[in-house]
């Protein structure tokens, strides 16, 4: 059996597993990415369901916490009437949440 000896007289270092040694790290990264994407997909689906529920008369929160009632729905916009009677045209993506009916009944200005 022949051994390789380098010029300085030392034997070459044994190489580690290479990609095989990094396999656990890749598996952990893949699992981590799976959970991140799954979580984002669930949030997007939940938001889309909320936007699909928008109808005329629904009370919503938009902008910086402004509450109003939807008066008209267009393609990707809504006309929202505030409690003081003013109306704003709001992108549906700007709507943060739907005000639950029991909370909407107790809203000021009713």
Largest sheet: 5 strands, antiparallel
Order of helices and strands: HEEEEEH
* Count of folded domains: 2
CATH-defined topology of the largest domain: SH3 type barrels
**Could you tell me the strand content as a percent range?**
15-25%
Measured as a percent range, the helix fraction is: 25-40%
Shape: rod-shaped
CATH classification class of the largest domain: Mainly Beta
Any guess at the CATH architecture of the largest domain? Roll
Number of DSSP helical runs: 2
Rg over C-alpha atoms, rounded to the nearest angstrom: 30 Å
- Ends: how far apart? 95 Å
Strands of the biggest beta sheet: in what spatial order? 4-3-2-1-5
Provide a brief overview of the structure.
With 110 residues, the protein is an alpha+beta fold.
Question: What is the topological layout?
Answer:
Layout: H1 19-52, E1 59-62, E2 66-73, E3 77-82, E4 87-91, E5 95-98, H2 101-105
Antiparallel strand pairs: 1-2, 1-5, 2-3, 3-4
Notes on the structure:
The longest helix has 34 residues, at 19-52. The chain has a five-stranded antiparallel sheet with strand order 4-3-2-1-5, with no helix packed on it. It is rod-shaped, with a radius of gyration of 30 Å. The chain folds into two domains: 19-52; 59-105, SH3 type barrels. By secondary structure, it is α+β, with helices and mostly antiparallel strands. It has two helices and five strands. β1 and β2 form a beta hairpin.
Primary descriptors:
110 residues, alpha+beta, SH3 type barrels, 2 domains, five-stranded antiparallel β-sheet, 5 strands, rod-shaped
